[in-house]
Specification:
The structure holds 3 protein chains of 3 kinds. By secondary structure, chain B is an alpha/beta fold. Chain B contains 10 helices and 10 strands. In chain C, 77% of the residues lie in helices and 1% in strands.
Chain lengths: 286, 253, 295
């Protein structure tokens, strides 16, 4: 092949790849614009602070919004400490033994388990065997199991990135391993761990399948006041209104509004995480 | 009889943004001879080598002023085809960098790029290049094995074979033995002496003894400038510049 | 002396943390255990052969028919079509980000792609219902726009950012040396990518694709909302399907705990778990081989 035709091929492929990227950006912009345009008219202060009324054909999304936040809190209360400590064990103490390898394999497999299977597990374990019933606790713990590998992964990366020197300096002063981890390694890794946790929150907020039969309610008249009550949740609310309501077409504005709120919640949290991470990287480069 | 000049640079500057890496380089590289560039690390000798096949093009902030003539043609002139240039001016790098593919595929990579598809022709080129790089006898029975299974020295000779497979006229070598043990280094040096029968060789080395052993001409770089050039023997025995003398007698660098 | 007391002080925290760390393992084992425990009774109601090859899914009829084949085919067809649509696109994006895009632009494009990856699947499913379905229905004059193609397009959007970013990591970790060697031989950018960088990154790229496929098999909301929900073996991309995941999500809530239907749905979950775990094992195997091959 001649050089001009090879060069032409190179240019064509480059142009093609640029258009792929452009297509993705257009798609993203189009989807966002569409949701904002349709959802904005439903948004109001009342929409956020009033519970659904009249068989969910009117009113706001106060109960599902608070329910989602409660679910996030329960999930993270479980997954954050367990995930971080698991990472501490894997990075600081684990030797390459059978237990460590099995543990790593398990965490890795957990990351690949379909979310609906987590739902089945939550149903049989938390709801039935432990007797929590379909509740905030069952659904929150199920979500916690789901994001556990995400937090372990992020924390492992953060801990491994702490320079050896820091640890050596601490040991040189006669600190024990645990003191070193607590006083030196964890504080140094904390910002990155936090970023991982923020991104995990974004993931938890949008998940639907694991909570459908572990504690998400079709409708509750009020916000849950105990861990053992079922809760409404934004993603499940969207599913219900869009597929199972009695007035699917009439409630479209509410559906768009709910989608917009969920998206703002998820992407807002995610954006905080992404920006925070970008800031950390910049600081590290300096 | 004066040998023909293959590459001639005139008042060549290299800039990275505001930093001037090379200043007013004037040098003539004779054809079918070995020219060595020596000097302390950071003196710009490797950067200079990369100007000769325009590998600096990949650094967005890099800019070359002045002239670099290859057979009288300015390779930074308008209409210069970088692809054709790099075919004409091959390069061997500091660390052996064979592709993670078979020995055969490594050598055939260049000829295939340039449009040779005939199996027999390729077989011929692969054998010829491996012989040219003094590797044939060691690998002729395992051409299909992964290149990465070879030793470091063999890998570097494979890279030389890969470079000469596209029949370049000039071969740039950027400290080709710095990652190798003394035995492997000796074999490469021996090879360089043979290669100059067919190619114009420009070699960067941090090792003065190596320059003295294998090169015909030597240029001494310091802080982005050429301090002195001349026939190797003359430069090492009676340097004209005091700084050259300091360097080759080991007083700095 | 000093060393020993230090070790002793470490023993308690170490034991506690090891105990906490075990929960990851415990959860995985519990998932396996409970899925087996709740799905094996299904074999008392029907046979394994009937479950796997039965072509009819009428779980609430009298007598009930529990043929998982249409559901399995639903999952397989959505996964295949999604992969066919999204994997080439994702790899193109990965190549763009790793090899073509100037680094200043990359800092903008990567977060944008990441944002797309954080879209909740229920939102994508919703878009499938309100935007894509009416359009497909009108454009191809179908009875319903909720079908295999609709779900696969949306699922493609879901796995695109995942596959693209993992594949980009794989491409970026190919050493600069190899690109230099190729360029120095007179290769163009495309030739270098196609003949050197892609083959060198192949293990990582395959892994990225496998993880995308795994996500597609396990994804629930998009198929629940956009695939049409008919338990039929699809004959065209415009046919509605009912994959395993959406069947579980749609039916588990209305099934009495402990009924035959309940156990069969757990069996469907077990099938999903087996599929995703085997893909995971495949990815692990590729990673091991890739490492061996590189050194």
């Amino acid at each position: 092949m001649s050089i001009p035709s090879r060069r032409a091929k190179d240019r064509i492929v480059t142009a093609l790849l640029y258009s792929l990227m452009a297509a993705v950006i257009l798609l993203l912009a189009g989807v966002l614009a569409f949701i904002v345009k349709n959802g904005l008219s439903a948004l109001s202060w009342d929409f956020l602070t009033q519970p659904p009324r009249d068989a969910m054909t009117r009113g706001g999304i106060y109960t599902p919004l608070i329910g989602s936040i409660q679910l996030i809190a329960v999930a993270m209360a479980f997954a954050f400490p367990v995930g971080v400590l698991t990472a501490v064990y894997l990075v600081e103490w684990a030797r390459d033994g059978l237990f460590t390898r099995t543990l790593r394999l398990a965490v890795r497999s957990l990351a690949g388990v379909p979310s609906v299977v987590f739902g089945l597990f939550g149903l049989s374990f938390f709801v039935v065997v432990l007797g929590f019933g379909a509740s905030l606790l069952s659904a929150g713990l199920t979500l916690g199991c789901l994001v556990l590998p995400v937090i372990v992964g992020a924390s492992e990366a953060a801990l491994s990135a702490v320079p050896r020197d820091y640890r050596d300096a601490s040991y040189a002063m006669g600190a024990t391993k645990w003191q070193t981890i607590r006083k030196v390694v964890l504080p140094a890794a904390f910002p990155s761990i936090l970023t991982g946790a923020i991104l995990a929150v974004g993931r938890v907020a949008g998940e639907t399948a694991p909570i459908i039969f572990t504690g998400a309610a079709f409708f509750t008249p009020r916000v849950a006041r105990s861990l053992l009550e079922p809760v409404m949740a934004l993603p499940y609310h969207i599913l219900v209104l869009a597929t199972a309501g009695t007035a699917i077409d009439e409630t479209r504005p509410i559906q768009y509004g709910t989608v917009l709120v969920l998206l703002v919640l998820v992407l807002g949290v995610t954006l905080v995480g992404v920006l925070f991470r970008a800031k950390l990287r910049m600081e590290k480069r300096r | 009889m004066t040998p023909k000049i293959k590459i001639q640079t005139t008042a060549m500057d290299l800039w990275y943004d505001q930093f001037q890496a090379l200043k007013a380089i004037d040098i003539a590289i004779p054809e079918r001879a070995v020219t060595a560039f020596i000097g302390p690390s950071g003196c710009g000798k490797s950067s200079f080598l990369r100007c000769l096949n325009r590998m600096n093009d990949f650094i967005p902030a890099a800019r070359v002023d002045g002239q670099v003539l290859l057979d009288g043609r300015n390779i930074y002139g308008a209409g210069e085809d970088v692809i054709a240039l790099r075919r004409q001016v091959g390069m061997v790098f500091q660390r052996p960098n064979p592709f993670p593919a078979s020995i055969w595929d490594n050598v055939a990579y260049g000829p295939r790029l340039h449009g040779i598809t005939n199996r027999r022709t390729l077989e011929g080129i692969v054998e010829g290049s491996l012989r040219g790089a003094a590797l044939w006898d060691e690998v002729k029975d395992k051409l299909r094995s992964p290149a990465l299974s070879l030793s470091g020295g063999q890998q570097q000779r494979l890279c030389i074979a890969r470079a000469i497979a596209v029949e370049p006229e000039v071969l740039l070598m950027d400290e080709p033995t710095s990652a190798l043990d003394p035995m492997a280094t000796a074999r490469i040096e021996e090879l360089v002496r043979i290669l100059k029968e067919h190619f114009t060789v420009a070699i960067v080395t941090h090792n003065m003894q190596q320059a003295a052993r294998i090169s015909d001409e030597t240029a001494f770089f310091l802080n982005g400038e050429i301090v002195e050039t001349g026939p190797t023997q003359r430069l090492f025995t009676s340097p004209r510049d005091g700084r050259t003398e300091d360097y080759i007698t080991g007083r700095f660098g | 002396m000093k060393d020993q007391s230090a070790l002793k002080a470490d023993r308690l925290p170490r034991a506690l943390i090891a105990a906490v760390a075990t929960s990851g393992l415990a959860i995985m084992l519990f998932i396996l255990f409970f899925l087996l425990k709740e799905s094996l009774p299904a074999l008392r109601e029907t046979t394994l052969g009937e479950l796997m090859t039965g072509a009819f899914w009428y779980p609430t009829a009298e007598p009930a028919e529990f043929g998982l084949l249409p559901l399995l085919m639903g999952s397989v067809s959505v996964t295949l079509l999604t992969s066919a649509l999204a994997l080439p696109f994702s790899l193109g994006l990965a190549v763009f980000l790793a090899e073509v895009c100037p680094s200043a632009l990359r800092e903008i494009f990567k977060p944008l792609l990441e944002i797309l990856g954080f879209f909740p699947s229920v939102v994508l499913g919703f878009l499938g219902m309100v935007v894509l379905a009416p359009w497909l229905q009108e454009r191809f004059s179908l009875l319903t726009g909720l079908n295999l193609l609709n779900a696969s397009l949306l699922m493609g959007i879901m796995i695109l950012p995942i596959v693209a970013s993992l594949a980009e990591d794989a491409l970026s970790s190919v050493p600069r040396d190899l690109r230099d060697a190729s360029y120095a031989l007179g290769a163009t950018g495309f030739e270098t990518t196609w003949r050197v960088v892609l083959p060198a990154a192949l293990p990582g790229i395959l892994q990225a694709c496998l993880l995308g496929v795994m996500r597609a098999i396990g994804e629930t909301m998009v198929v629940l909302m956009a695939s049409g929900g008919a338990a039929l073996i699809p004959r065209s991309v415009m046919d509605p399907v009912r994959p395993l995941t959406s069947t579980i999500a749609a039916e588990m809530g209305e099934t009495p705990i402990g009924s035959a239907h309940y156990h069969v749905l757990f069996f469907a979950g077990l099938l999903l778990l087996i599929m995703t775990l085997s893909i995971n094992v495949g990815a692990l195997w590729i990673e091991r081989r890739g490492r061996k091959w590189r050194t």
